[in-house]
């Protein structure tokens, strides 16, 4: 196994995903929901937008709709 140094963005992504996966799950809030939330949050940063604006914006819109549906479902 070869270890390659991580870039700043990779370190940030790794840290955020580890944090998301360690969140408690309740009321339909799963690890997948946490990961989607992290990615959507990253999509709002200018660094991430500069990398791939069109696909990120489309994903951000879809993630927002998904989070809204999950929130409505958990309230029922």
UniProtKB/TrEMBL annotation:
<protein>
    <submittedName>
        <fullName>Uncharacterized protein</fullName>
    </submittedName>
</protein>
């Amino acid at each position: 196994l070869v270890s390659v140094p991580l870039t700043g963005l990779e370190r940030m992504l790794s840290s955020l995903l580890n944090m998301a996966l360690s969140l408690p799950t309740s009321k339909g809030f799963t690890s997948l929901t946490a990961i989607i939330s992290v990615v959507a949050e990253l999509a709002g940063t200018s660094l991430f937008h500069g990398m791939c604006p069109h696909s990120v914006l489309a994903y951000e819109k879809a993630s927002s709709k998904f989070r809204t549906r999950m929130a409505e479902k958990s309230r029922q």
